[in-house]
Automatic annotation (TrEMBL):
Pfam families linked to this entry: TRC8_N
TM ranges: 12-29, 41-60, 81-101, 107-127
Entry keyword Amino-acid biosynthesis: no
Organism of origin: Diaphorina citri (Asian citrus psyllid)
GO cellular component: membrane
The name this protein goes by in its record: Protein TRC8 homolog
Residue ranges constituting the TRC8-like N-terminal domain according to the UniProt record: 2-139
Subcellular location, principal: membrane
Alphabetical UniProt keywords: Membrane, Transmembrane, Transmembrane helix
Record membrane topology: Multi-pass membrane protein
Gene that produces this protein: LOC113471947
Subcellular location: Membrane
Length: 143
């Protein structure tokens, strides 16, 4: 979506696989009964996806900073980056609302809540770019 080149040595697939393996070992996934294993697997995927949100933030943050510093008139690049940021705020918020209304308090719920809240706060702090973007587009509209 962002059409950027990954500058990191780490690939998202490798990091995800290693994280999934570590979570499976920590939670004893292979030793559980089928019903408990499914619940644990869903919780592990939830943690994994929350970690992926952090990875996505690390990709979109430098892009937003470069777009705010440049005078790039390409509106589609700005819209794509802001769309990803919107997703990074809306999805964790909906996830937290769902989890807190349907599950009992546990250490797993607190961990997912902390990681999701961290993503929301990090993206919200980057969203200060939006007024700068709107001001530039407004000035370009009248010139």
């Amino acid at each position: 979506i962002l059409q950027t080149e990954d500058q990191d040595d780490k690939s998202i697939g490798t990091v995800s696989a290693i994280l999934f393996y570590i979570l499976a070992l920590q939670t004893g996934l292979t030793e559980l009964e089928p019903e408990d294993r499914f619940v644990r697997l869903c919780r592990n995927f939830c943690l994994l996806f929350t970690a992926l949100l952090h990875f996505i933030h690390n990709i979109v943050n430098p892009l937003l900073m470069s777009l705010s510093a440049s005078h790039n008139p390409a509106l589609h690049r700005h819209v794509r980056a802001l769309g990803v940021c919107s997703f990074l705020i809306i999805y964790p918020t909906l996830l937290l609302v769902y989890l807190w209304t349907n599950l009992q308090l546990s250490t797993w719920l607190l961990a997912v809540s902390a990681f999701s809240t961290e993503v929301i706060v990090k993206v919200w702090s980057v969203m200060k770019y939006v007024p700068i973007f709107l001001e530039k587009k407004w000035q370009n509209f009248f010139t």
